[in-house]
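Hi support team,

I submitted a single chain yesterday and got back a structure, but I'm not sure I'm reading the token output correctly. Could someone confirm the output below corresponds to the sequence I sent? I've pasted both exactly as they appear in my results page.

Thanks,
R.
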Amino acid sequence: MQIEWKPNSGPQERALQANVFELLYGGARGGGKTEAGIIWLTDDIEHKLYRALVIRRNADDLSDWIDRANRIYSLLGGKMSGKPPIFRFPWGAVIRTGHLKDDQAYTKYQGHEYPRMLIEELTQIPTEKRYLQLLASCRSTIPELKPKTFLTTNPGEVGHAWVKERFIDPAPPNVKFKDPDTGHTRIFIPSTIDDNPALLNNDPGYVHRLEGLKKTDPQLYKAWRWGSWDVFAGQVFREWLREMNGQEYHTVNSFDYKIEDCKKVICFDWGYNAPGCALWLAITPQNKFGVSRVYVYRELYQNKKTPKEWAFDMKALNGNEDIDFMVLPHDCFARPQGGESIDSTFRKELKIKIVKGHTQAKDARLNRIAITHQYLSEAIDGKPYLQTFEPQCPNLIRTLPLLVYDQKGDETKVEDIDTTQEDHTWDALSIGLVAIQMKYRLLSGTVKSARQIKSKAFRELKPGVYTQKDTLDAILEAHMQKGKKKSWKYN
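Hi R., thanks for writing in. Yes, this is the structure output for that exact sequence:
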């Protein structure tokens, strides 16, 4: 059975020829993923027992897919009816559509059998568990119909982290690999607008609109134009960089100070079923530019542990280190019926001064987001105020850059983090940063970037004294000696 449609010679053709159980297609905007999925569903559709399920999280977003699919499936004799729509073909084949408006919607397909499954915008599904609940219905008792899934997405949204871990990280693009547990095959096939000549020819201005982001929002440009999985739409802490210009930036393998010469704080966020997190933060003495920074030098990330077990594990990791204080969220001070609060347990076992983190006040989360941005920003010496010790803090480094904004449509939450994510490391870090800022006042104002300082130094010092070849460190040192330090800050 044929229709007049020809795939592009790149990603679409590879996607339609791939013989895998899970195929993730897309990445950048305008890559032709929707049309590829619609055509993919026509493979084996001539079988009278063919059954397929098309899923997208929101019903309104599925309407565009339905309109486009109807134009193609009607050419094959398909008739659309019902709500959500079902496409029925004269010989018995059926394509159903559905959406996931709430948590219970994931279970309504249990027990169904669909040899073909198409999920639009996979990263809108918040957790891998939810995805696997759907995937369990992609099965077949018909030898001629092997079960297969076609998944489309752009980087970003609440499910970005698990999708990246499941499809992007295990193998290079266009390389098929096996799930080590199930033996099922997977592949990620990336596409960009350059692979979609129909869109380029019909709307040549679209690519120019994407290119326009290059100067105004370079990170979003990388995500939308090239499908980068390291920066993406909706990302909260987009300033996070493992390295900058080939140099360590937010993650480091060594510190400029000995930990024993720093003030030290432990910050904690409770979790039992979901992982909880304890982080050790070191506040350095001021360097020659007047900068104190925070080093995150140790983490404990675990679940299914009682407060006493947490205390025991933290005590073992801490050893004989002197800790100035420990910060706990407000729920750790609640006293359960017939038991003692978490803070009481920690006081007894750890012998550390404990303070309550600012987590209950109105807009407390927004304040914690703001202060995290400040500590991730660049100080006058060209390094960020916050750096993380890579060998001992893998979960903070993994989860912090993957956090996205709440996108549930509530206008009161547009600046808040989506709390359905793996956010316990950030919760621990942010209450610690607030407590540190209140006690030590490391940030007296927003400090201009090193690039701005360098430019100011060139303007204010005698012309011809410095060239672009001079190091930033030398320029800043000379600028300090000229008594210009106060001009580097603004309140």
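A quick pointer for reading it: The chain has three domains: 11-202, 248-447, 450-490. Let us know if anything else looks off.

Best,
Support desk
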